[in-house]
Amino acid sequence: MTPSLAVPAQRLVATAIFVAIVAAACGTTPTPTPPPAGSSPTPGPSVGPSGTLTVALSADAESMDPHRVYQKAGISIVEALFDTLIAIDRGDRSKFLPGLAESWTTAPEAIEFTLRSGVTFSNGEPFDADAARFSILRVMDVDPTTGAPIEDDALKLNSDYKRSYGAVTSVEAVNPLTLRINLGRWDAGLIPALATLPIIAPNHAATVGNEGLKTQPIGTGPYLLEEWIPDDHATLVLNPDQWERPRGAALVDRVVFRPIPDVTTRISELTTGGVQIAQDIPVDQAAAVEAGGATIVAFDDARHTEIWLTADKGGQLATSGNATPAQLQAIEALSKVEVRTALNMAVDRNAYVDALFKGFATPMTQGFVPGDIAYLPAIQPWPFDPDRARQMLTDAGYPDGFEAEIDVCTCDAAIADLITAVQADLARIGVRTTIREAEVGAFNGAWASGATNPMRASRLSFLDPNIYGQFWLKGGGLLSRFADPEMDRFVDEQAAQMDPARRLEVLHKVAALTHDLAPAIFLVGFQSVYGVARTGVSGWQPHILGHISVLDTRVGG
Amino acid sequence: MIATIGRHRAGMFGVLLMVVVATIAVLAPVLAPGGPEAGVLRDRLLPPVFAGGSWDHPLGTDRAGRDLLVRIVWGSRTTLWIAIAATVGGGLVGIVAGVVAGWYGRWVDLILGRLADIQQAIPFVILAMAVVAVVGPSLLNLILVLGLASWLFTYRVVRGDMLAARERPWVEAARALGIGDRRILWRQVLPNVLPSIVVVLTLFVPQTILFSAGLSFLGLGVPPPTPEWGRMIADGADYLRTEWWLTLMPSLALIVTVLGITLVGDWVRDLGDPLLRLLRSAAPATDEMGKTDA
Amino acid sequence: MPRSAVGFVLRRLAYQGVVLVGVAFLVHVLILLSADPAQALLPPTTSPEAVEAFRRAQGWDQPLPVQFATFLGRAVQGDFGTSIRFGQPALAVVLERVPATLTLGLTGLAVGLAIAFPLGSLAALRRGTWADGAVRGFAVLGASVPGFVLGQVLILVVAVGLRALPVSGGGSVAHLVLPGLVVGIASTPGLIRILRASLLEVYGRDYIRTAFAKGLSPRAVLLRHALRNAAIPVVSFLAFDIAALLSGVVIVERVFAYPGMGSLAVQAISGRDLPVIQAFVFVAALTIVTTNLLLDVAYTRLDPRIRGRR
């Protein structure tokens, strides 16, 4: 038994602190929680970088190739090794900062960047417009020498980021410090996409190839990779060649990232001082973390949880031909908007927020959460009304409900309890669900291959609503399982809007439709929860993208 | 002699424990008529009565606000069903394979022996993960996977016993009298092998529950909301630091069950330890060396 | 070594080779049957053509026997393909992790034997007393507490409560203590049980009675005569147990975030990194098969019957 359990007084104190933090985290505004200590990120001019910061991640990086790293654990490492043309303000998703580009101008037919001079990659290659062009073309699967799409499938990168560059017709290095991206049409998602595109050293990339880049990253970033023992640790050392980055400054000599998948072990490392920052702390464990002498930091990075509903009757699913009769019945039922709305009225979101997330969450009223720019506050929540929901099912022709499977990824332990609770709520209106757990490989495979799962639990967060719209909301989008002509029109319209205010108007229409059409059972937006040591580390703040940024963090003292 | 009487008493105690657990499993619908899936979310993670909780939930509640005692009572059904189905199912395959290989020998023995060796050279957890990746997680598939573990052992023990039995004088005598193979097997040989089988099964039931817990820990357990002790232990382990009863209570249930089964197994084993016989006689070296020098 | 023994080892070697090929085939089939690896590996937004191309590039469009033959031809040369995650030779990726896992496994084995031998002997010598009962109770406990629970309890008590040892990770002797204990304790119930039964049987034999009759002390009888003989089934049991030990290591490595090949394998299965899975299973099978071979040899040295026959 742990000593911390045996002492009620200690527990009481911890709970009090905890409540205070909940209150701070769940104020009326979705602004980030103030960091626990040393909130001034600007370093004293006399103090140079020093010390070692150790960070516990909940998983390891997929690889060290920044164009093939998608999960927040890997992005935490990649962010320290590379720079982007445009940088992100860690606390504000609508604000972009200069990165490797000092400035940029936008027009419907092109985006033009003025690049920072005097920056070199850590292997000595100079950073210039050709280098920037190389990285953009790499994720687009375009050959940088010919400017033509790569035909040989074996040479393609097939990066997940490729999908953001559909509007780009060509990329030009006008001169060493001017880069021009020519567009076939304006796409509002491009700036956010470029803000998350790490720039890699082109000659190095050509030398080691796509395979070599998986373990040998060369960038311009604040840190260099010293050693990577997969599933054990990645050690980063300070890049001696620093420049003043608006996104933050490197204040420690070394950073060690340790993937520790087991929650209990991760927390134990935090409370014994083995690590200073730990990712993905379950809300239930927050009190234990506080009692163990660390601070809980909760941050709303607009991550939301929902169960997507397969409403695509007659589409890819019917033709896939291997659906069971029960699955076909479920899909038929889910193709009716009344049924989908009924499901949304059957789930007790407030209970989830109170009991499961102790307030570190907000009930969803639409496909967006308050942290998203597209969020429309005016939308009324679905009432929690199982009786009416059951009546609606009866009216729609399903008095006895129906059966359906919910696919859940075992990679996302944080939502396991939530899905169990939803399962119980749905059972009350006669919708009998089976939870199908799959590890991440099988989970992604099943959804992508047009398999027959009627429902799928997801936890998503987007820097910009465009990709969400294109791939989840628009009919025929690669991850979409429903289609509505009006939704399709608005999604395309917002992407083409250059004027932010007018784009927002259209986005609000999209938001309203996510409520009216209910393509998913939208559950809760819940905050990312981190544990931070009370002593020995200061200045750390959560990042809007949900990964751990080590910039502006100091150790010792 | 005193020791034997002590054993006898321990064996009876084991039987008693098993009867109690089995009764709880059978009577679950009477003992806890609400079923194991009903819960109040807002009442989640309540402590047991001896740690400050109330008698409404004597052992506290789980992560979904479900009564832990009710979950354990219902869980006994799933747990025992999986353990017994996997052990007996795998055991039956092992018995048939062992009888065929040990009695008829030759190429059947050769092939089955190779198969067993191949399977034994793969760490079970990895094999199980790969199999579940193919067939997907479900109660039935879990039983199939766990059955894979138990056939191997039963097969080896039974085969060894069959080899020994074949050489016995009375079996040879029966053959000389012209009694058919099948009759000799049923009447003479199998009754002699039976104690071995019982002992192996009692060894494997706890093993199977532990395997199931291990697979749950890796995310391949019984799908929710069905209660099963192994999965309950694995799910609770995340909460060990604060809600330790989530792990302790199902663990206690498991310990009591394992104790019962072990005591009964020891009792039966007093007739002669088949495992020991196997380990003493059936090591491959002996066979091969025998052939070399013959 | 006598000729027959050399022949024996060679034959065992050849046989174990057949087992290894069988293992490789089984795993190959299993993994290809699982959800289309191409779909699982590529981002969900990949176009069907790109998925098809990827499949061709990996050789997954070939018929199964062809695929397997190709794989085997390369595997014989130590080429298991390139890890999809790391872009490096899969065998090298796995071999890098072998020392850590081997150390953990051997530590566990040593711990298991160190606990089982005294306890098993005690239980056998004091058969029917409270000591026997206590040892058997310990065995029941060991057989009903999963390794991951024991591991987490040890972390909470020893590493968090007492701050005596590091919580997780690898690289030093201190990091080895807790995971080694968990792996070791997991194998004690079986070992104790076998040793106790075996000793009881040995004590019933004539030569032990002779030894006592000669006036040897119980301690001398145990150490000089009984244990040696009673160890034979224990050695055989280890052959059965070594695969289970490796299974335990896989789970223990996850609990302690220990950088061995078990955590690598779990990751590889989730990520469908087929070359790494193949290389891992090959290395694991090779370990098990080699251990069995060594145990065979140990067995012939321990068993007077076999030595006599030589």
Fraction in beta strands of chain C: under 5%
The class by helix and strand makeup of chain C works out as mainly alpha
Number of strands of chain B: 0
- Looking at how many chains there are and whether they match, the oligomeric state comes to heterotrimer
End-to-end CA span of chain B: 43 Å
Query: How many β-strand stretches of chain C?
Result: 0
Largest sheet of chain C: none
Identify the overall geometry of chain C.
globular
What structural class is derived from the secondary structure elements of chain B? Answer: mainly alpha
Weakly predicted, low-confidence segments of chain C: 306-310
The pLDDT mean of chain B sits at 80
Shape of chain B: elongated
Radius of gyration of chain B: 22 Å
SS element count, helices of chain B? 11
The unreliable regions of chain B are 282-294
Number of helices of chain C: 13
End-to-end distance of chain C, in Å?
10 Å
Give the SSE string of chain B.
Answer: HHHHHHHHHHH
Biggest β-sheet of chain B: count, sense, barrel? Answer: none
In percent, how helical is the residue content of chain B? over 70%
